[in-house]
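User: I'm new to structure prediction. If I give you an amino acid sequence, what do you actually give back? Let's try with this one:
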Amino acid sequence: MINFDLVGGRFGPYEMTYTWRDVILYNLGIGAKGTDLHYVYERVKGGLKVCPSFATITSYGPLFSILEKLNIDLKTLLHGEEFIKLLKPIPTEGKIITEVKVAGIYDKVKAALVELETISTDGEGNRLFETSMTLFCRGLGGWGGDPGPKRPSYEVPKDRPADFTVVEKISENQAAIYRLSGDYNPLHIDPDFAKAAGLSQPILHGLCTFGFAVRVLIDEACNGNVEKLKSFGCRFSSVVYPGDNLTISGWRVEPGVYHMRVATERGDALSSVRAEVVE
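Assistant: Good question. You get back a string of structure tokens that encode the predicted 3D arrangement of the chain. For your 279 residues, that looks like this:
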């Protein structure tokens, strides 16, 4: 039984200390290549860059701790949505201190929907970014509770081609690399665990796909400048497997705003993707 007493509660602070090695490992985990020196070389001219989707990994430690407090089994879990809002550039090393709020638990009949919000600061108390996520907990709904607010959807234009399209090959080793940034859910590495969760094989982390999309957007819409991303959010629509081809397309729908499609050969992996950038 879910512990509903935690709704509205705040937890933390959770502290994450990291170095340039963690930044490079994360960038490799979201598909950066050896030739992308600004992402993989600590001595590169202009300095090593932190892809802003790095903000998502600060939630991993708190997430597993809070799920345990909520009495939710990892096998029930599917990532619903993720949103990041960048307030300052993320340093290449230091401390990130995160506080988490259980913003709501909603009844989706076949699942419970858990909403978590975070605020993260650096070691000096400066706000770096905010995130929010929703988690579908399969089989835990149906208690007759509040279904939650209706969330906006963002569609891509159907009357014109994308402003950019990039196809990324997901390495067979991608999930094995990405998990070293902190998401140790066995769903992404252990075939037996994946089958127990109803999947044919381990799947790529949803936030790895998220990171691929953010990295491509920065390359294509921000001329590689990580400091130009203001926000990025999406829904997770379908699984991605190591070995898949991931097609990432973006449409500039108004100044500083992009809607995107992120899909495998089987259909959308991310949907309702919206990003804000500085132009």
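You can read the tokens as a compact description of the fold. Here is one thing that stands out. The first helix runs from residue 20 to 29.
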